[in-house]
Amino acid sequence: MKWTAILRSLFSQSVDLLGPPDAHCLVCGGRRRGLPPRSADGLRIGDWLCDGCLACIPWIRRPACPRCGRPVFCPDCIRQPVRAFEMNRSAVRYNDDMKAWLALYKFRGDERYGEVLAEMMLPAFERLTAEVSAAAGDEAGRVVSGTGFAGLKKISGWPDRMRGGRQAAGQVWHAVTYVPVSRERAEERGFNQSERLARATAMRANAPLLPLLRRIRDSGKQSQRGRSERLRAMRAVFGPDDAGIRRLAELRASCGNRASEPVRVLLVDDIYTTGSTVEACAGAIRAAASYPVQVYVLTWARS
């Protein structure tokens, strides 16, 4: 029996060494039961995580606040009912586990988490696209509107599965943009996590990724600030990227938009806390455009 146990241990170790590196869960390191099939357009979350870690993801299934997408009562939107952006939708709650995942990507440079985070944003992207489509009266919106999270899971390939679906998503979103980071942060991290999340989103939306914003000054780290401090810190932080704004105007003209028809821009960021960052960004975009612009927000996490 002793030799049997030893042989089993050696066999298990040899499988671990010879098996594919992604057979282990990215988060806990444990072996997954098997590699799920890959989708036609890339990997899925199950390609990185075990069932246990997948079950720990705090998905936002039913936003309680229609403006900011918070899953519970939101006093911020009660205090400030008029916003520069139309609405925000987030994929998950920002709890301790999600904070750790983001830190490994944002501060430790583990790019595998970037792919996971981008994939996790898909249900929120589909929900937001469905809501905007329904409001605009698009056929795609009528098909998926009101399905909720369970329905969206059934059609999780909706923007990607059909080329017609991609075209519908492209009609919903005229452009995708992101929150810029300061030069110091870019040099420190080597990348802008919001830009990378926006790039993946733009591919799903079949819309161009445009740098519509530039950071005029560094606001400092926001994580330790309260709501009022965040609002003060974000004043005059962002300005328009003139080249990106011109490109947006060219796209609007090429699409044949009527003068009264708004351009829909999807602004992507990693975390929504008080909304001060996306509020400042949306205001800068709208102030720079000489035509109607509606800014919607997609974030990975909602605190």
From TrEMBL:
Residues that span the membrane, as ranges: none
Coiled-coil stretches: none
Highest taxon above the source species: Bacteria
Family (UniProt): Belongs to the ComF/GntX family.
Entry protein name: Predicted amidophosphoribosyltransferases
Organism: Thermobacillus xylanilyticus
Gene: txxe 2363-ComFC
